[in-house]
Design brief:
Iron-sulfur cluster assembly protein CyaY; CyaY; alpha+beta; Metal Transport, Frataxin, Chain A; 104 residues; Frataxin/CyaY; 2 helices
Length: 104
């Protein structure tokens, strides 16, 4: 995968996250600036998602730690836990909201 393909794939992932949050009705503010997506919660805590172009990875930082995701068989998988990216974002959002979020 070249850098252009990497950015297109990550852009699509971030758009899916933003749409899932919007459609869920959860009270999470979402902002994308450059290569960084910031999810902000009522208590002003944040989840930061950014792309790491040199390694072709997505990184996520939250209250519970930092996670790196590599594209494996068309899915972004956490190198620490093996959890898929969207599942991890949902889990971390629920942790920070302290409530279940219904998103597809």
């Amino acid at each position: 995968m070249n850098d252009t393909e990497f950015h297109q794939i990550v852009d699509a992932q971030l758009q899916q996250i933003e749409e899932a949050i919007d459609n869920s009705g959860a009270d999470i503010d979402c902002e994308i600036s450059g290569n960084v997506m910031t999810l902000e919660f009522d208590d002003r805590s944040q989840i930061i998602i950014n792309r790491q172009e040199p390694m072709h990875e997505i990184w996520l930082a939250s209250k519970t730690g930092g996670y790196h995701f590599k594209l494996i068989d068309k899915e972004w998988i956490c190198s620490k836990s093996g959890v898929e990216f969207h599942a991890m974002v949902k889990r971390e959002c629920e942790n920070q909201c302290q409530e279940e979020i219904d998103w597809q």
